[in-house]
Design goal:
Length: 234
């Protein structure tokens, strides 16, 4: 119970990686709230709010509601994200802007609100190995994730030593985002082209997230860690 009593907020915590992180932080003793953009009837996590992370008004209201119900979050995980797969020439301005708005602007808005409110704590941003590698037919997504890594490093410098800011860049993880209907067969095959040649489990990302949120990670900031089956080696 290394995080006993800590208040945590996980964006996109209704399913997949975010859900696993929310459950792992809960198991470590945190009091966890999530936000999501799903049908509220489908969400089973105990403290769950509907909020679009790309909206400044909704992010501020989310923090107000979490603070009122649980207290000021000291651990904030920017996990909400969307994928868009299309050739560059068929990616519309609206497609590009939406991916950047949810993934990058959303991470900025949530981190900014965290920095305004928390005395000290941790911000953890979920990037992607594609933010380092790039990927054909995923330019907007890859750019948004590269932006998250640069945002992480900038915030880590600016907010030290009050708030430690790190990123996790997962490789292929078995979630709705990587389900056969959500990605092309070509992209799924590419995802498996790693030394470990399998999809990771959301819990394998959550284990690192819990460590980075905890007392043993007190000298770590501005880093970007892969949980990726070897897709990127640095
Ligand atoms: N699955 C992978 O292979 C993989 C790999 C690398 C990075 N990631 C990243 O991990 C994060 C979680 O991915 P996942 O695979 O669990 O996805 P998922 O599609 O299973 O879940 C996405 C979550 O984000 C929420 N969400 C989407 N848009 C939102 C919005 N505008 N406002 C608030 N919440 C919103 C959804 O409600 C859901 O809770 C994403 O940032 C994703 O880019 C995933």
């Amino acid at each position: 119970m290394t995080l006993r009593g800590k208040v945590a907020l996980v964006t996109g915590g209704s399913r997949g990686i975010g859900r696993a992180i929310a459950e792992a932080l809960t198991a470590a003793g945190s009091r966890v709230a999530i936000c999501h953009s799903d049908d509220p009837a489908s969400v089973t996590f105990p403290v769950a709010y509907s909020a679009d992370v790309s909206s400044e008004v909704e992010v501020i209201s989310l923090f107000d509601r979490v603070t009122e119900e649980l207290g000021t979050p000291e651990i904030v995980v920017n996990n909400a994200g969307i994928l868009h797969e299309a050739p560059l020439t068929e990616t519309t301005l609206a497609d590009f802007d939406r991916v950047i708005a949810v993934n990058l602007r959303g991470s900025f808005l949530v981190a900014r609100e965290s920095a305004r409110r928390m005395e000290s704590g941790r911000i953890l941003n979920i990037a992607s190995d594609l933010g380092l590698l790039g990927r054909e037919n995923m330019a907007a997504y890859s750019a948004s994730k590269g932006g998250i890594i640069a945002l992480t490093r900038s915030m880590a410098r600016e907010l030290a030593p009050r708030i430690l800011v790190n990123a996790i860049a997962p490789g292929p993880i078995d979630t709705d985002m990587t389900s056969p209907g959500a990605m092309s067969p070509e992209a799924l095959a590419k995802d498996l082209d790693t030394p470990l040649a399998r999809f990771g489990r959301p819990e394998e990302v959550a284990a690192l997230a819990t460590f980075l949120a905890g007392p043993q990670a007190g000298f770590i900031t501005g880093q970007c860690y892969g949980v990726n089956g070897g897709s990127v080696m640095t």
